């Protein structure tokens, strides 16, 4: 009887000691602080990138660009037309003739 009483007491002690399982910190003890810092850092980098791309786009759109292109050499094997296109004398992706 004494042995069963001792076994019951030790079982009750083990049940009393059980607590919630501990959280595993897989080498990230201060993850919340690091995550917030990284998020703020990348937010700043994103805004800086947006500003840089906007400035470069404005510069590229405002600088001059040539309006007159040189005519390519009239090679005899290019632009052979055996019959007219339904939309005119030029190919669909060619520049238009000056007289049209």
Structural class: mainly alpha
Number of strands: 0
Largest sheet: none
| Rounded average pLDDT | 80
String of helices and strands: HH
Helix content: 40-55%
CA gyration radius, whole angstroms: 39 Å
Helix count equals: 2
Residue stretches low in confidence (pLDDT < 50, at least 5 long) are: none
Assess the beta-strand content as a share of residues.
Answer: under 5%
Protein name: Cytochrome c oxidase subunit 6a, mitochondrial-like protein isoform X4
Keywords: Membrane, Mitochondrion, Mitochondrion inner membrane, Transit peptide
Main location: mitochondrion
Organism: Cinnamomum micranthum f. kanehirae
Commentary on this structure:
With 100 residues, the chain is mostly helical. It has a domain at 35-59. The chain contains 2 helices and no strands. The longest helix is centred in the middle third of the chain and has 32 residues, at 31-62. The chain is elongated. The N and C termini lie far apart (115 Å).
């Amino acid at each position: 009887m004494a042995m069963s009483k001792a076994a019951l007491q030790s079982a009750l002690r083990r049940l009393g000691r059980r607590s919630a399982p501990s959280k595993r910190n897989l080498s990230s003890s201060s993850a919340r602080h690091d995550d917030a810092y990284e998020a703020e850092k990348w937010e700043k980098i994103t805004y800086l990138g947006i500003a840089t791309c906007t400035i470069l786009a404005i510069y590229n759109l405002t600088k001059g660009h040539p309006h007159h292109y040189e005519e390519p050499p009239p090679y005899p094997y290019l632009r052979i037309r055996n019959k007219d296109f339904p939309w005119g004398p030029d190919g669909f992706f060619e520049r238009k003739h000056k007289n049209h």
